[in-house]
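Give me the fold.
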Amino acid sequence: MFKNGLLLILFILNFFLSYKYGGNVSLHSQLENIDRLQNISSVIFGVMGAWIALIYPESLNQILNWNNKLVLANVSAIKRILLPIKCATIVILYVLLFNWISPVLVQLEILKSHKEFALACNFFLVGSSCILLFVAILFSFAPIDHVEAQIFKKSGIRNSLTRKRGMAKENSSDNLDE
């Protein structure tokens, strides 16, 4: 709920900033940002693809072979990893469409006469893409938590740390009693 509310606030803020100031941002500046968005999206694809292949290879095999049944825990974990990929896909679609259609759009008389509005709309799309990539980057850390939990689980480090903390608390409470 909090995440959705925060996203809504960011999109509303983006809308008002685009409406107020987006028309004054040059197309050249916006094109530079669009190129950056494309690069960041590509990196997110690569990182998330590697996470899936490294962390969930058995689940990846099961997804590709529909005859097997997936383990529910793996499905929920993979869904968390797929969110950044979905966000990056949306951004790349926007970048591709913009690069394909913008040479035609700049020639249209209606957009020439409403240049400030067109720039503001594009600025809103660039800002929305930035918000999506922000979410994608945040969710790209999800596999790190999974790997850390697996390492602690397999090595027993967390249990030994917990036992040491418990012993330290017992010793400190013994010292307080004296």
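The chain has two domains: 2-140, 143-178.
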